[in-house]
Amino acid sequence: MSRLPHICGLCLLLRFWQLLALAPFKIGGSKVAQCQRWMTLSAAFRWLLLTSVAPFIVWQSSEIYEATNVKLSTVFKTIALAAMTGDFLISLALLGAHLLNRKELADLVTGLARLHRRRRLSWWSTLFLWLKLLLSLYELLCNVPFLEGAGSRLPWTQLAAFGVQLYVQHVSSVYANGIFGGMLLILECYNQLDQEEPILARLLQKERSWLILVQRFVEVFQLGFFLLVIGNFINILANIYAFMSYFTSLHGVPLTISNNCLIMAVQLYAVVLAAHLCQVRSGRLRKRCLELEYLPEGLTREQAITPTPFPLVSPTGSVKFCILGLFTLDNSFWLFLVSYAMNFIVLILQFSLENMKQA
């Protein structure tokens, strides 16, 4: 992928995926992803090593909080360690899933690379991608004040454990940036097609090829989508609980907790919004084909527009980011998450006020 422009960030993301063993394969000169034995063994060894040291890392992380001079409440320590452990497990699950499905992932990356040679990200898509990358970098740099304040008092074992913890925790962040970049590329293809001449045969050919690619995209990253959405949402709820507990007990605003909650919410919404826009653009392309008087044989216009279980040809298919058959990534699902979070905040406030009255 040497010809891909580095300014768009997609090539940089792929290199990060290879560095973190999220992409355990080699990109050949013909822009084809190839699985090689030494890269597979290296990724497997790294996964086994991280899995074996996971209990030690969690134990040392709990010791880090005890070694600092900051008086942290039991609630904060419990939530921080639970969130840390959850991020660790999610990252290990992502690395293991990519290692097992490396051939399918390599085929998908090859298809995206070929698509990217014909379609380039617009400046708006490039801007959004780099904003998300910079947001992840800001999340990583938020740990610098902690290291400056407590780094000199920590032994080397705890510093090493903290470094491994940061490495594993940010695997999921790099993973989310990668799938976000892939969805931006797919979305850009739909956007550029709207500007071309509406030739029916060309539209049908593009719609069919992109539908197959997006279906493979969703199939390969189903587990990753599920872990990202559930993990980030649980972490957001945990940070909301810690924020409200701190606010009601000390009547202050913890900036660290609020920053973490805001960053996770923005990153989660970026992925959901990109998936929603891909589905909207796919439906618009399908409608456009129907407006050009394309109609499958034996179907009326109303039957062609409505969803059907029969194996019909394009454009009756539509892109759906259906994750493990449990939910679909779109705006309605995001509104469900927001409403659930608001109800959670109301319950916390009610519980805190009752405890304050009893005290």
Automatic annotation (TrEMBL):
Keyword Membrane among record annotations: yes
Assigned keywords, A-Z: Cell membrane, Membrane, Receptor, Signal, Transducer, Transmembrane, Transmembrane helix
Record field: transmembrane: 37-59, 79-100, 121-147, 167-190, 210-237, 257-278, 333-353
Membrane topology category: Multi-pass membrane protein
One Pfam family from the record: 7tm_7
Subcellular location: Cell membrane
GO BP annotation list: sensory perception of taste; signal transduction
Signal peptide extent: 1-21
Cellular component terms (Gene Ontology): plasma membrane
Keyword Signal on entry: yes
Annotated InterPro entries: 7TM_chemorcpt
Protein purpose: Gustatory receptor which mediates acceptance or avoidance behavior, depending on its substrates.
Stated family: Belongs to the insect chemoreceptor superfamily. Gustatory receptor (GR) family.
Identification of the protein by name: Gustatory receptor
Lineage: Eukaryota, Metazoa, Ecdysozoa, Arthropoda, Hexapoda
Name of the gene encoding the protein in the UniProt record: Gr89a
